[in-house]
Amino acid sequence: MLNKILLIIWFILRPRNYLHFFSLIKRKFLHNHDTVENSKKAFEWAKVNAIPYADALKKLDINGKLVGLDRDTIMEGQKLEAKSTVKMGGSGHIHLLYDCVRLLKVNNVIETGVAYGWSSLAILKALSQNGFGKLYSVDMPYPRKKNENDVGIVVPKNLRKNWILIRKPDNPGIISALNKAGGEIDLCHYDSDKSWWGRYYAYPILWKSLKSKGLFISDDIQDNLYFSEFVRKNLLNFAVVEFEGKFVGLIRKE
Ligand SMILES: C[S@@+](CC[C@H](N)C(=O)[O-])C[C@H]1O[C@@H](n2cnc3c(N)ncnc32)[C@H](O)[C@@H]1O
Predict the structure, then answer these.
(1) Domain boundaries along the sequence of the chain
(2) Residue 135 C-alpha to ligand 1 middle, in angstroms?
(3) CA of 20 to the centre of ligand 1 (A)
(4) Interval 21-45: pLDDT, tens
(5) What is the pLDDT of residue 93?
(6) Residue 73 in contact with ligand 1 by CB distance below 6 A
(7) Which 3 state secondary structure label does DSSP give 185?
(8) Does the pTM exceed 0.70?
(9) Smallest Cα–Cα separation from 139: which of 88, 75, 74?
(10) 77, exposed or middle or buried, with CB in 10 Å at 0-12, 13-18, 19+?
(11) What CATH homologous superfamily does 2-252 map to?
């Protein structure tokens, strides 16, 4: 009970998070899609559909040499992460992100969910090697964790000039990011609110804003059935890749 009260106070003191807070309250009265049974079904669906990383990129017509994020950049990030005193969420598939950004030569990228910033690091490193492009990242810090100052800590100073970090929840952060990016994006990485209702809010907005041939990447699709429903309903060209016992979903726009 005390924890709930402290959580409510945390939200009340931060007006930029009000829309998300109201949506969390509203979800208590809506159908719960995030059941254990549904997450088992989603895991099975992802497992059956998973293919090797290289095959997944080929299936989505992403061609070229796959090299992954280099060891030195990872080690530099690890040193920076060690300075953080807060435990945050694990990284997305950094090698996949790095290769996709590099091979597709993307210009505008949006990601949701930063935490230590491993996905941001992979994307920014690839953008800097491409020589163009910007990353718009949306992140609401973990409530009551006091991790605000450490969000994105693994991104070194020399990679920050093309990085716009929007410290808001997905609602309204994704819309702010899209406005700043001029309304259209080439690639997005979704790794924030992974509940069914969180995806229900964010996926359609991000998908609609993707340019033709754009790439949508979502982490942890095994959490619930939203990803599988989204690709089935919209008849989309997708691929699933296993990563550290979890699954990443990719969708390429026609
Ligand atoms: C799994 S971590 C992201 C990891 C990161 N992509 C990486 O590869 O290192 C999830 C992040 O999303 C943030 N988050 C959770 N719910 C959110 C929401 N509704 N809006 C924005 N950020 C959210 C969390 O606070 C956390 O920083």
Answers:
(1) 2-252
(2) 15
(3) 13
(4) 999 999 999 999 999 999 999 999 9
(5) 96
(6) no
(7) strand
(8) yes
(9) 88
(10) buried
(11) Vaccinia Virus protein VP39 (3.40.50.150)
